[in-house]
Amino acid sequence: MSTKTDDPISRKVSFIHISDTHLGENKDFILYNQNTYQKTTNLIKAINSFSAPVDFVIHTGDVVNEPTKASYELVKDIFSSLNHPILYVTGNHDYPEHISWLNSSNQSGFDLVPLTAGSYHFNYGHYKVLSLDCKGSPQIDPHGDFGYLQEKDLVWFLRRFDDDPKIIFTHFPPVSLDVPWIDREMLLFNGERFHDTLLKYGNNVLGVFIGHIHHRLVLNKDGILYTSAPSPICQFNISPLDQKVAFDCNVPASFNYITLVNNNILIKEITTESP
Ligand SMILES: [Fe+2]
User: Could you report how far apart the first and last alpha carbons of the chain are, in Å?
Assistant: First the structure.
């Protein structure tokens, strides 16, 4: 994989954001009455048939449903058919050690710099990228935790790259999404502190990319852009009236296509026709 080095300011970088594939230990695994292997296969086919330039794909976590070695072997196998390099972020269903294994065994061109506790950073062209592992303890699951180590890594990243354009990936939504059940059950603990840290040090953060809510969503809070990618398996409900989780599994394969150019960001929803 080549990084963009010539005239980096004017060069486009394009990547695909996917999330929450919840793969099982074998091809027959069923979740929410859906075969997650088949749905993920449909997503990979959709990405491979998308003809626009793609520099890489990033998966913002819950790659598997249960963090067993067999599940991650299946991940490695299924995503080997993807036509682009792929990177992974830890979700609450993942183990950081397995995510590191996927990232190290699946890639050749990314120079990933490990930070504390499963987080990492890399440069792509003149863009600086942070993957922040906020997996919490079993006691707070399915919340994530923006604890001391995560704050240390985030502050280091923001201060180290100061004026450079930056993008951040993490699994959990840090701030209220105006969805009662999600705000109550799914947010990042200390998420407002995450947001305040961006406001304090986060000069030129182009976007924060999340998963976990299984639904596409875009939020601009105090000038910080948060956006989530849909799950190919089922989507959760996100109405401001939703007090309990509900599922819509009749969803087509879809992903977010992100373009960075001249420190601007463009997000396109790409959806195939049939579930
Ligand atoms: Fe999740």
Answer: 32
